[in-house]
Amino acid sequence: MKVRGGHPCCTSVNARSHGAYKRSSDGQVINRYCCKVCKTTYSAATLSPLKWQKKRHINHPLMQLLTHNVNLNGAARILRVNPKTVAKKLRFLGAMCHELNLNTGKKYDHIRDIEFDELHTIEHTKLKPLSVAVAVSKKGRKIVGFQVSRMPATGHLAAVSRKKYGKRPDDRLNGMRQLFEHLSGQLRPNISISSDECPFYNGVVKTAFPTATYTQYLGKKGCVAGQGELKKTAFDPIFTVNHTFAMLRGNISRLIRKTWNTTKKIQGLIDHLNIYVWMHNTQRTPLVSN
Predict the structure, then answer these.
(1) Mean of pLDDT values over 189-198
(2) Does domain 103-283 have CATH number 3.30.420?
């Protein structure tokens, strides 16, 4: 019996049976205990992050739907709940998966090769683009980290964006630095790193991983398959990260290029990505990776 209460003395050693109660949300019978030292009563659900949730049974089905190209409103209709419930669950599940991803990331010191690149999406409108920097292990296809950053519009939309929303900051460099600062605490220092030839990548990598083997490859033109993430070439040296981007666009509704499911708030995108990273690393990739 591994049950803990709110106080340090409330352990299984000091616990004695103190009845039970029937949880109203799912009808499950939960045993209660009393601490012999401080006389505090508690149960197995006292320290659970799901405490007080009335619809805990939809947590895992919702994670499945959100990572299989179903939007928030669609998930609410399928699960027969209010869309507001799904919005709250997105925030809760995103925070929970963020902690799980951090704990899992501590076990990635065996990874020898990673690839990284940036995926572009939008915040409400094409005039407010976002950059998602993602690092992926080359062999196991584990997503070892990501960072969402604002960026200014480019091309023919640049002038329109400045006129309507003002000058938009370019946070891509800072976002990339934060990503590699995070990775430097998880991965081995002599790791092999690959990316395309973006000008500011080299300085960021050398600062975080001075002893790493870093290789940059010339970017290739995208093909129709994979919504442009997969490349028109017989051999793509950073195929793993491009394939992962294609999976992101294919399984997260807000990342599809031609869609009305756009990100309204950056935090919603971060929560959605955290959920996908957890599901991707635990269910869609090998359990052991090198």
Answers:
(1) 94
(2) yes
